[in-house]
Design brief:
The chain has 6 helices and 11 strands. The chain is of the alpha+beta class. It has 2 domains: 127 residues, PUA domain-like (Roll), CATH 2.30.280; 116 residues, no CATH class. Strand 4 and strand 5 form a beta hairpin. Helix 3 runs antiparallel to helix 4.
């Protein structure tokens, strides 16, 4: 949908199609699974210290120009994006009257408090989100588990998965990438165990077993255009490779994805 490094009109290419707030750094469309984030080179005098910390981690300062920043509105939307099935799309503002440049899709596994001036020059608490670029391949399955190791119960895996999607406070942005990996793994482990070897869309058994004897199913994120990053288990399914490809590339893919979301709702309610 958006190409990294390409420039877009914020109004014509983003808000005209998806809605959301047309001003400010965080836009939260009501009917689409995205949170649009906009960063720029200005704002340092108000405590906004956005920027890359390494090639995959971008620190993004939350919204709020006067007083301490709080977890409401856009800040809450970033922190809870995985629980809400939302994808974070980050753009760089190139200047007044100029387009915005797409920097990529991100997840927010950790955040920290900072200090800085507000618009009126008063010292205040800021919120800095650690955004990690997502780049998992579609269809990636959970790492193999040795049959000699006792597996956790489904209830325990479910607890870990739902706990995993919550962004946590951390003073070290370097931990964000590892936290993201561990969370993604926790969600996938639970989803594959929940499926119990059968496709959660069709009910068909897995087409084959892996070398460790586990049924092979692929993990699909029903609220995303791709299968990047972690998600809330209520929106993630384990399905056969054929069903997975049909959802992504088949002419009836959107309808199959809708049916799958309804089935996941029933499964989790049970």
């Amino acid at each position: 949908m958006f190409v990294i490094g390409r420039d877009y009109s914020r109004r014509a290419d983003i808000h005209a199609h998806f809605g959301g707030q047309t001003q400010g750094g965080i836009s939260t469309p009501a009917n689409d699974p995205f949170v649009f984030l906009f960063t720029g080179r200005t704002g340092g005098q108000y405590g906004y210290e956005d920027g890359w910390r390494d090639e995959d981690v971008f620190v993004y300062t939350g919204e709020g120009q006067v007083g301490d920043m709080e977890f409401r509105a856009g800040n809450r939307a970033i922190r809870d994006h995985a629980e809400n099935g939302k994808e974070l799309l980050l753009f760089e503002a190139l200047g007044k009257g100029r387009p915005v440049r797409f920097l990529g899709k991100f997840a927010c596994p950790t955040w920290e408090y900072g200090r800085g001036p507000d618009r009126e020059g008063r010292e205040r608490t800021t919120i800095r989100f650690h955004l990690v670029r997502t780049a998992l391949e579609a269809g990636e399955v959970v790492a193999e588990t040795s049959s000699s190791v006792e597996k956790p119960t489904l209830a325990e895996l479910r607890r870990r998965a739902f706990e995993a999607v919550k962004a946590t406070q951390s003073g070290a942005f370097k931990e964000a990438r590892q936290v993201l990996y561990e969370r993604s793994r926790a969600v996938r482990e639970y989803v594959l165990s929940r499926a119990n070897g059968c496709c959660e869309l069709t009910g068909e058994p897995a087409p084959f077993q892996t070398k460790s004897g586990e049924p092979y199913l692929e993990v699909h994120h029903t609220r995303r255009l791709s299968d990047d990053g972690p998600d809330d288990p209520r929106w993630v399914a384990a399905i056969t490779p054929t069903a997975h490809r049909e959802i992504h590339y088949g002419e009836n893919g959107d309808e199959l994805n809708r049916v799958l979301r309804e089935k996941l709702k029933s499964i989790e309610e049970q």
